[in-house]
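Why does residue order matter? Because the sequence determines the fold. Keep that principle in mind as you read this record.
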Amino acid sequence: MLQEDVHKYLKTFFDENDSPVLEESPGHLHIQLSVDMDKALMNRPFYWQYLEKIGGVPNPWKMTVVTDENAAPEDINKRYERKAEAIHFGSPRLHQVFNLTKELGSHVRMYEKVARNNLSVQSLPLQPWLNMNMKISYEAEKKRDRLFSVGLCLTNGEMIEGFYNHLKFYPLEPEIPDYCFTVSPLIRPVSGVERIREQTERLIRQENHTWAEEAFAKMREDIELLRGFYSDSEELPDSYHSEKEAIERQYSPVVTISVINGGLFYLHQHPLNVKRFRQHW
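Structure:
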């Protein structure tokens, strides 16, 4: 499921940054990078400096990424000129995309493009939804990351998990459509961010944290083993304390929440009904 999230995130990221997906399977994406994306991702500064100097025609790369290790990457490599790149949680390329997302714009304001069949009907209301897309990292001896998206309705406090997956079904535009108006929020965006943070922390506390208990048990075992090496010492030397601190740093469980991006989305259709809405668009 996590790799499916990576696949969806990458596809949306490139689509929204003028880099169309040329070919796709459940386990890979073949993308025509835009000039800006090539410059940002492919580390070819000398090529672009030379091209701009001579006034040449730009030729941005086509990038192939594999998001499923079972997608036979050797077969995919044969289909394209350049070797496919495996991307997963924790991979440097995915972190680069996350950082680039922040640079390009950490938040947006978008409006649902409403289809109007009868313009004689009064203006349609657009409800404000605050969306936050986050990365949750679970780290002890090993590290695991996952994406987490939440949407909060600023008029009634309703909260929906997996909000990012619902947004992809909406036709969105940066300007408010004609014959529509935005509903005034009862919850300020700043307060909404705090509500989402509290709810995210509450959900994390309710999760199964066997991984943390196992990390503590492993830490105790290693500290006991370390003490055994110094059992003959009347006074524990500084080396013992430094090694003990290193063990504690290695095994101490830590959960961190990082905000990737977010935004305000003014929607007429309720997010849980939007799939059916798009089918009749």
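The two ends are 29 Å apart (CA to CA).
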